[in-house]
Amino acid sequence: MLSVAFVVMMLLALLPAPAAPFFQGFDEWWHALVAGPPDYQPSGAVAWLNAFGGPPGLVMLPLLIIGLLLARRRWAVLFTVLVYIVPMLFAQLFKNVVDRPRPENPLVMVDHGSFPSGHVTLTAALMVMFIALLSPAVRRYWSPVAVAFVLVMIWSRTFLAAHWLSDTVAGAVLGAGVALMLWWLCAPLLARDDARRNQRKLATTVQMAKLSNTKEPTP
User: Fold this and answer.
1) How many angstroms separate the CA atoms of 76 and 71, rounded?
2) Are 49 and 156 in contact (CB under 8 A)?
3) pTM of the model
4) Rounded distance, CA 206 to CA 90, Å?
């Protein structure tokens, strides 16, 4: 709910004057501080981050679906597809409603509307998705990595002058908030996948124990 309230507050601040909200001065200060030089050509990690949050990043979706299907986690497939689609639908809706101008001379190709950042929205949503799909023992190690990756994406979008800082923060809150809500809604279904997986592991363990007993030499 806090994430929804935060994004709504930003929407209300932007709608009267999309080009001059009350926090525009801070956005311009950050833009002057971190934006790359006008002649910069994206390469390396920066180019990869730009591709990750755009259409090339969608290549991950079919790979994830195949992996989850092979693991027999069919409800996780539904959750993954929803996390890819729903946050971005909200992001596009807000882009069209607000239609905030982007910083001048972005260093990469961009579409209309600066608020919120679609790249950061998708990144934050995917990081929550991975946390949900990983085992509890692994989550505590992945969580700081996920936070760091979102922060790096925020930096890259402002470095490339593709977004104002407030656009990226709103994208992070929107993506994470929607993904958390989807996780909550899908939790009973994901639990079914986990229960079936535990049953298969137990059955395999029992079968291996039986095979081991049959191979033991008789005295």
Assistant:
1) 10
2) yes
3) 0.86
4) 48
- Residue 66: CB atoms within 10 A of its CB come to 11
Q: Give the start-end residues of each E strand in the chain.
A: none
Which DSSP state fits 125? Answer: H
Q: How many CA atoms lie within 13 A of 137 on its CB side?
A: 0
3 state DSSP class of 103: coil
CA dist 37 and 186 (Å) reads: 44
- What SS3 state is found at 41? coil
Residue type (1 letter), 23: F
How many Cβ atoms sit within 10 Å of the Cβ of residue 57? Answer: 18
Read off the pLDDT of residues 58-92 as tens digits, 9 standing for 90 and up: 788 889 899 988 888 888 999 999 999 999 999 99
The dihedral through the CA atoms of 197, 199, 202, 206 has a sign that is negative
